[in-house]
Specification:
42% of the residues lie in helices and 14% in strands. By secondary structure, it is an alpha+beta fold. It has a 4-stranded antiparallel β-sheet, with helices on both faces. Helix 2 packs across helix 5 and helix 3 runs antiparallel to helix 4. The protein is globular.
Length: 183
């Protein structure tokens, strides 16, 4: 029997409130078992028509370096683009998980991308709960073909998540007031 509790006493609220985008990491290793726990949390996310269109790849240190180099190369000549900075974050991270969409089962791209976003959020909250830092990276979708070759996969890259032991404690970013977003 499931018991639903309404109120502010759930630990999940702490993970939601304390989650930050971490872009600087300590040089400490992160065990693969913790990453697997994050992926397990991700697959519990709701998905449109229960298609579960997500696929995840924990990349090796060598693959991570190749992905960072490909992103750096692709964006280095685009004025003001954040890709080169993002490549540095990937290099600095202890781990990288690449997130894909399985287009073979995707029937409605918009709904499936929303489902993948929910899975990523579950993963990030799980990692936060375990004391790890992470940042959700969108720029890796710019190098989808390169990632496919590096990782030898045929799935389409949606994004990636840089993960590690935090080496920063950023303050909460400003959020819009409730009155500004509730219609």
């Amino acid at each position: 029997m499931l018991l639903f509790i309404y109120g502010d006493n759930m630990e999940l609220n702490d993970a939601i409130a304390s989650r930050r985008s971490i872009r600087k990491f300590k040089k400490e290793s992160v065990g693969e078992d913790v990453l697997i726990e994050g992926i397990k949390a991700a697959i519990l996310a709701p998905s449109a028509h229960n298609r579960q269109p997500w696929r995840f790849k924990i990349v090796s240190k060598e693959e991570k370096g190749k992905i960072a180099a490909a992103l750096r190369e692709k964006t280095k000549d685009i004025p003001g683009h954040t890709g080169v900075h993002t490549a540095g974050i990937i290099d600095d991270a202890n781990q990288l998980i690449v997130v894909f969409i399985d287009n073979q089962i995707s029937e409605n791209r918009e709904m499936d991308l929303l489902s993948i976003g929910a899975a990523i959020e579950n993963m990030i909250l799980s990692l936060t709960d375990k004391g790890l830092g992470s940042v959700w990276i969108g720029n890796t979708n710019l190098i989808n073909k390169e990632i496919g070759k590096i990782l030898d996969v045929e799935y389409e890259t949606v994004s990636s998540i840089a993960i590690g032991v935090p080496n920063q404690s950023p303050k909460a970013r400003p959020r819009k007031d409730l009155a500004d977003i509730v219609i």
